[in-house]
Amino acid sequence: MDESTAEASASVAASDSKPTCVIVLGMAGSGKTTFVQRLTAHLHAKGSPPYVINLDPAVSQVPYPANVDIRDTVKYKEVMKQYNLGPNGAIMTSLNLFATRFDQAMGLIEKRKDSCRFVILDTPGQIEVFTWSASGAIITETLASTYPTVVVYVMDCARSTNPVTFMSNMLYACSILYRTKLPFIVVLNKADIVKPTFALKWLSDFESFQEALEQQTSFMTDLTRSLSLVLDEFYGSLKCVAASAVTGEGMPEVLDAIAAGAEQYEKEYKPQYERLRHEHQSAKVAAQTSKLGEVSLKERPVGSSMQSRSEMLADERIHLGGVEAEDAEDERERVFGQAEDDEEDDTEADKASFQRFMEQMMGAKKS
Ligand SMILES: Nc1nc2c(ncn2[C@@H]2O[C@H](COP(=O)(O)OP(=O)(O)OP(=O)(O)O)[C@@H](O)[C@H]2O)c(=O)[nH]1
């Protein structure tokens, strides 16, 4: 084995012992939550249940078994009332509050790092709340300084058949790639509605994208043409996978891409994140957000307000031809039972903590 191969194997082995964190981002309605649900079900069926964190405080229903749910820690509607904020401001503030306690989430992940190979994070519908906020940066950097971390950008390919829309979406993806500085996977979702062959072609063949643009007579066309020249280089850093969060199509390929991303993280991105950890930006932002007050984060007993276990199993069998119900149920019992045994239900303490925090905030506002 030559030196570089040995080095590569060593770094893969290193990442094997740690879970890979998967940050799922995407435009509103692109299918992030459905994708997390599908990937979670797929991993359960493979006997490798992930650790799942919901970071969307405004979602009404979480259809997967979340181990940590931001909604248990911060009540988004209360934040809206108390601070007199609109929905987006309240989502941003809720995420800031949660980020002040992300060290607790790291502690919970640390406890599960030997039993979970993946940590999946679902993010708010309004993508900019995560990608352009201090809290999003804190969460991303905290994860990436400790674990192999990849970004999965979910793109609604059914709504991107127009080259101008496609380009806008890719431009956004590009801005996130350069902001997060992490391995980046584009999931061309909703492949059951429109086969994303067109998108794969546009990504790999510059001429074919130009031809598609020729058919357009919008004032955006010239701008798009110029941008596509710039973005052509960016496409080289992308790994694109066609998938359907509804049918489960493409999930094995998504997992392969995540594994390749984790490997890439170890080789190319880790040193950069180790340097970043020592930089003062996170500390400064954390100090700013901590002015908002403190909240106490807790882990969920998995399987309460979500899709029932049997429903998830049935779902999995239908779409993926997964494991037999009893085997999967055994596996699930083991994991869920563990979660239930490990954690006490401290909802009351959490409510009281949130109430205290709100009273302090109101007191501060009045004085
Ligand atoms: N046909 C089809 N529909 C999908 C797929 N993925 C998601 N959807 C549908 O798209 C809609 C939006 O999906 P969500 O998972 O809520 O999308 P999201 O990005 O989490 O939405 P927000 O968090 O509100 O931004 C839902 O009606 C889903 O059923 C898919 O692969 N195929």
Automatic annotation (TrEMBL):
Keyword Metal-binding included in the entry's annotation: no
Region described as Disordered: 315-353
InterPro entries: AAA+_ATPase (IPR003593), Gpn (IPR004130), Gpn1/Npa3/XAB1 (IPR030230), P-loop_NTPase (IPR027417)
Main location: cytoplasm
Enzyme class: hydrolase
Annotated Gene Ontology cellular component terms: cytoplasm; nucleus
EC code: 3.6.5.-
Record-level Gene Ontology MF annotations: GTP binding; GTPase activity
Residue span(s) of domain AAA+ ATPase: 18-182
Residue ranges, compositional bias (Acidic residues): 339-348
Subcellular location: Cytoplasm; Nucleus
Keywords assigned by UniProt, alphabetized: Coiled coil, Cytoplasm, GTP-binding, Hydrolase, Nucleotide-binding, Nucleus
Family: Belongs to the GPN-loop GTPase family.
Function, in words: Small GTPase required for proper nuclear import of RNA polymerase II (RNAPII). May act at an RNAP assembly step prior to nuclear import.
Quaternary structure annotation from Swiss-Prot or TrEMBL: Binds to RNA polymerase II.
Protein name as annotated: GPN-loop GTPase
